[in-house]
């Protein structure tokens, strides 16, 4: 009995020591593409990734660390060493949200080969660090047909992500479905507010103005970040304890 008590005291001490310097709890790392990425703000920039707005939903905003980058696929995220940076930073108990597809669609002939293998690799390597992977389906684009119906642009990629999540028993954020509903709730004209329909002369970055149906405005990014939070709560993930 004395030996057991001594072991429990030691285990408590080790756990406490491991959390020293981590008073704010676990960290949430984000791996993904431009729809998730932080955007430069100087000079003023109308574009925001949803991961850029996610910290405001947490008690300690600094716990969210965003590694997502414009134009990256699962392949380039690995080959450029961006994935390794996350692995090097991971500590036991951390979380990683992984969301790709927008750029993978451009380089892979279908979603059932390398793309899924890369997702499996991400899951396995996060778990090897005793951290917690979360997969997310890609955000919907603002794409409407002539009858005012939202058009799916991702093909079988969302299902490919769902399949890996089911196979590996990883929590899944259903961002494709939720962002599709978000687009539909705003309608063909109103959904422009979610994205980047910029008039001429408003931003020095884009003096001639432009339209973009994939990336988000500040308003759109905050709405999508809220959907990710909604999923964290729906799934009853321990990460929800750190939400505001």
Structure description:
The structure is a single chain. This protein is an alpha/beta fold and 244 residues long. 41% of the residues lie in helices and 11% in strands. The longest helix has 18 residues, at 2-19. The model is unreliable at 1-21 (pLDDT under 50).
How are the SSEs placed, and which strands pair?
Blueprint: H1 2-19, E1 28-32, H2 50-53, E2 64-66, H3 74-79, H4 82-89, E3 95-99, H5 104-107, H6 114-128, E4 132-136, H7 157-168, E5 172-173, H8 175-190, E6 196-198, E7 210-212, H9 218-234
Parallel strand pairs: 1-2, 1-3, 3-4, 4-5
Antiparallel strand pairs: 6-7
Helix pairs in contact: 6-7, 8-9
The assembly state of the depicted protein chains is single chain
| Number of discrete domains | 1
- How many helix segments? 9
What share of residues is helical?
A: 40-55%
The chain-level mean pLDDT equals: 89
CATH architectural label: 3-Layer(aba) Sandwich
| End-to-end distance | 42 Å
User: Structural class of the secondary structure composition?
Assistant: alpha/beta
The radius of gyration computed from the alpha-carbon positions, rounded to a whole number of angstroms, is 20 Å
Q: Using DSSP, what is the number of strands? A: 7
Q: Mind describing the biggest β-sheet?
A: 5 strands, parallel
Low-confidence runs (pLDDT<50, min 5 residues)? Answer: 1-21
- CATH uppermost class: Alpha Beta
């Amino acid at each position: 009995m004395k030996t057991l008590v001594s072991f429990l005291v030691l285990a408590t001490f080790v756990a406490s020591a491991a959390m020293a310097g981590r008073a704010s709890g676990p960290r949430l790392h984000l791996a993904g593409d431009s729809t998730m990425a932080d955007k430069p703000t100087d000079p003023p920039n109308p574009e925001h990734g949803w991961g850029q707005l996610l910290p405001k939903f947490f008690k300690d905003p600094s716990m969210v660390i965003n590694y997502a980058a414009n134009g990256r696929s699962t392949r380039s995220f690995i080959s450029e060493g961006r994935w390794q940076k996350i692995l090097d930073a991971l500590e036991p108990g951390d979380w990683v949200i992984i969301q790709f597809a927008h750029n993978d669609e451009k380089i892979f002939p279908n979603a059932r080969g390398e793309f899924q293998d890369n997702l499996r690799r991400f899951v396995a390597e996060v778990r090897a660090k005793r951290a917690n992977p979360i997969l997310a389906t890609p955000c919907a684009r603002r794409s409407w047909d002539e009858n005012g119906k939202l058009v799916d642009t991702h093909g079988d990629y969302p299902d490919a992500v769902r399949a890996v999540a089911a196979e590996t028993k990883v929590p899944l954020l259903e961002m494709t479905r939720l962002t599709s509903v978000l687009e539909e709730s705003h309608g063909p004209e109103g959904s422009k507010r979610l994205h980047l329909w910029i008039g001429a002369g408003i931003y020095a970055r884009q003096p001639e103005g432009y339209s973009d149906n994939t990336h988000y405005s500040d308003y759109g990014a905050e709405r999508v970040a809220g959907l990710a939070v909604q999923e964290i709560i729906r799934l009853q993930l321990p990460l929800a304890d750190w939400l505001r």
